[in-house]
Every structure is written in C-alpha cells, then in structure tokens.
C-alpha cells in the first residue's frame, strides 16, 4: 500500500489544489498523510472539512521539512505502508502520475524513483534529474543533455528532490529515515537519495510520470527576489537558507568520496558565498 506524505505550513490553497489533483488520480490505491506543522491560515480546518479521508499529523511549527516528513513516514509505516511517497504541497500530480510511478516500482522493486517536473504555468519541463561529478563538483542537467526523443523511461541520477519521491519500505528499513538532526530542511532529500544509492539501491528519474510545479514559489527563489545583507546571512546560515554552509558541509562529509572532499567543499563554499548575488 502506498502512503503519500505531504508536509505543510500555511499556503492552504496550494495544499487544497495538490490534494484535489490526488483525488483525480486514475488509481486510488493509496492513502495520504498530511503533516500540518502549526499552520495559522486555517489549513487544519480545511483538511478536516474538505478531505476527511486524509490522515493528519500535527507539529508546533518547528518541524521544518525533514522532521515533518519523518513524522509522516512513521505514521505511514505504522499503518502498514509498503511504499512511501514524499510530496510537496506546491505541486499538481498529472492524473496518471501515481499509476505510472507504481507501475515503475513494480518493475524495479528496490529502486528509489523521482519524476519529471513541468512548469505549471507553461507545461515545459523544468527538472529531470542530474548527475554529479564529485571530483569537480559539476552537475550534468539531464534536461540540457538528453535529446527530446530520449525524454522517456528511466534515467539514472545521483540524487533526487523530495517532490514526488517514491521510496520502497525496504530502503527505509535499511538506511532509516531522513537526517533531521544534521539536515533539518534543505539537502535532506538529496542526502537521503545519495545514501540510498551508496547502499546499492538504484536511483532513477521516471520521465513517464509528471508533476507540475511552481518554480518561482520555491523558498530559494523567494529569498533571492529581495537581496539584502540580512537575506545573505539567512541564505548562508538560516535553517531555510538554500546556501546553508553547515548543511552543505554535512552533505559533503556524508556523500563525497574522500579523495575529492577537500576540493568539493572549497568549491561549494565559494559558490555559496558569491552565488546569492549572481542568480
């Protein structure tokens, strides 16, 4: 049984639209767990009134992404989940999304799977996975290198984001939950899928399953719209900072092969120190 775990904090309109897209799936063989981390905009009441079948876990506003997802995963595992999917609330699932992900999982029972992401406004692909060369800290964006004719089926990647991430129970039983202690918000998803890959579980982006996303609504994009010294500090050190130096350090220490680690870290620090003002 698939359980879809969605951590939320406010933005109830996004959550409503996401849940409505799940109600329209061609298969309904799944349950949804929403982790409401102290929302103050009526999200909890909306869930109870409009989506009574949804299982709700609650936080006090201090869970952030990783602990919120872990809380939902624990609930799902206790309910008997065979597969867990983590999903952000600011996505819309194509009607056949769950069906295509489960069909792929049946064919590759030990694989961790992500999906192709489309811009909700334009319908154009915006994310299709990437591979990382640890030696040079350079990323190969598959959407930039794959011919259009090959944008189908499975493609191996180094890691995956938590938006539409399908995880077999075996993976969770083998490597545990997401690292909420060291990676409370950003990079926890990339770290988890990297750790899974290093433990021998294949990590693929499934180009046959599509999610629509809102690229301009990501936390990093919002932070960069109004650049300031305070924003720069939050970018490098804040728990929601996309360039958080501590998070990047832990990610490198846990996943980068040791011979490449010094350059990987130094190169990454430099990019984060200047990247806030360049993008």
UniProtKB/TrEMBL annotation:
<comment type="similarity">
    <text>Belongs to the glycosyltransferase 2 family.</text>
</comment>
<protein>
    <submittedName>
        <fullName>Glycosyltransferase family 2 protein</fullName>
    </submittedName>
</protein>
<dbReference type="InterPro" id="IPR029044">
    <property type="entry name" value="Nucleotide-diphossugar_trans"/>
</dbReference>
<keyword id="KW-0328">Glycosyltransferase</keyword>
<dbReference type="InterPro" id="IPR001173">
    <property type="entry name" value="Glyco_trans_2-like"/>
</dbReference>
<feature type="domain" description="Glycosyltransferase 2-like">
    <location>
        <begin position="4"/>
        <end position="115"/>
    </location>
</feature>
<dbReference type="Pfam" id="PF00535">
    <property type="entry name" value="Glycos_transf_2"/>
</dbReference>
<keyword id="KW-0808">Transferase</keyword>
<dbReference type="GO" id="GO:0016757">
    <property type="term" value="F:glycosyltransferase activity"/>
</dbReference>
């Amino acid at each position: 049984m698939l359980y879809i775990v969605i951590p939320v904090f406010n933005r109830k309109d996004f959550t409503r639209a996401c849940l409505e897209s799940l109600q329209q799936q061609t298969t309904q063989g799944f349950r949804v767990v929403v982790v409401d981390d102290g929302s103050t905009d009526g999200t909890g009441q909306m869930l109870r009134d409009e989506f009574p079948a949804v299982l709700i876990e609650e936080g006090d506003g201090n869970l952030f992404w990783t602990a919120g997802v872990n809380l939902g995963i624990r609930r799902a595992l206790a309910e008997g989940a065979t597969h867990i999917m983590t999903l952000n609330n600011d996505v819309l699932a194509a009607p056949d999304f769950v069906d295509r992900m489960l069909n792929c999982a049946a064919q590759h029972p030990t694989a961790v799977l992500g999906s192709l992401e489309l811009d909700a406004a334009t319908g154009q692909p915006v994310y299709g996975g990437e591979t990382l060369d640890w030696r040079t800290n350079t990323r190969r964006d598959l959407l930039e290198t794959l011919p259009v004719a090959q944008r189908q089926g499975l493609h191996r990647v180094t890691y995956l984001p938590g938006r539409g991430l399908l995880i077999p129970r075996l993976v969770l039983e083998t490597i545990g939950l997401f690292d909420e202690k060291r990676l409370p918000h950003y990079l926890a998803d990339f770290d988890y899928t990297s750790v899974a890959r290093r433990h021998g579980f294949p990590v693929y982006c499934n180009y046959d399953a599509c999610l629509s996303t809102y690229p301009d609504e990501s936390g990093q994009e919002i932070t960069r719209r109004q650049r300031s010294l305070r924003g720069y500090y939050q970018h490098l050190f804040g728990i929601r900072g996309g360039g958080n130096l501590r998070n990047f350090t832990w990610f490198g220490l846990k996943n980068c092969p040791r011979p490449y680690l010094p350059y990987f870290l130094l190169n990454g620090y430099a990019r984060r120190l200047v990247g806030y003002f360049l993008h």
